[in-house]
What we know:
The chain is α/β, with parallel strands linked by helices. 37% of the residues lie in helices and 16% in strands.
Amino acid sequence: MEYSLLGKTNFRVSKLGLGGAPLGGDFGDTTDEQAFRVIDAALDLGINFIDTAPLYGQGESERRIGQGLKGKRNQVILATKAVMRGVPYTYENTMKSVEESLKRLQTDYIDLIQLHELESVSYEAAMEGTVAAFLKLKKDGIVRAIGVNAGNIERLIPFVQDGLIDTIQTFGRYTLVDYTAKDVLLPLARERNIGVIHGSPLGMGILTERPAPFLAKYPALLEEAMKRKNELDFLHKNEPNGLVEPAMRFSFSCPDIAVTLTGTTSVDSLTRNAAYCDGVGLLSEHEARVLSLFQGMKLM
């Protein structure tokens, strides 16, 4: 397992992190026992960064992670988010959200708290409500670091520029078919020493043989994704899901990404992804070819 520093937090984190959405059952029925097996396997593999949110399974992901980490809390950097989708991003709601997360996670502190889904709140409202609450929680030692989360890169940039946050998390923006984060966001984060967490390195399943079911609502997107995947035949392994390994290595080898998240309820899948986190990226000529194909071309 490779490790890196998460920006100015100075947290030493595994470059592969465990994403908590599947542990809450968001991608299919999941039992407590499945979740506990994955958490134990992650620790055995050297993964020390776990990311979750109240939204995942309506609290089930946090509850299972809290239970699975009993007696092992000090082995991980634990990240969660606030607030739940549909709840206003006020100071009071944020404080309540974090209090409820602490109970579900069975801990008295959170290493990293993140504003969830920036697309749902204006910059001004976020700063006056949730970010203000985060800063108070950080001052009081209840959280150690604060960050923001969004799929839309443009929504993250003002928060990086104002210098109050420690991390950003985006998803699907440094993949083999959409690497638009590298144009502005990643250089700016590097300049400000903001830690970068990258979710969905497989592009919501687009780079596997089973895209996320909700993408069926976007046939034009899937059509464009298939065209781009066809241009990546030079990377394809002669096996099912033959783009998974190059996609994971592509994200792991980006020097500006501290943590790449994998969400799974399968110990076998987790073990395979961990094997790719060995410091070996794509061949230089292959990486250069990928970066010449879709420059500046956002997919979703």
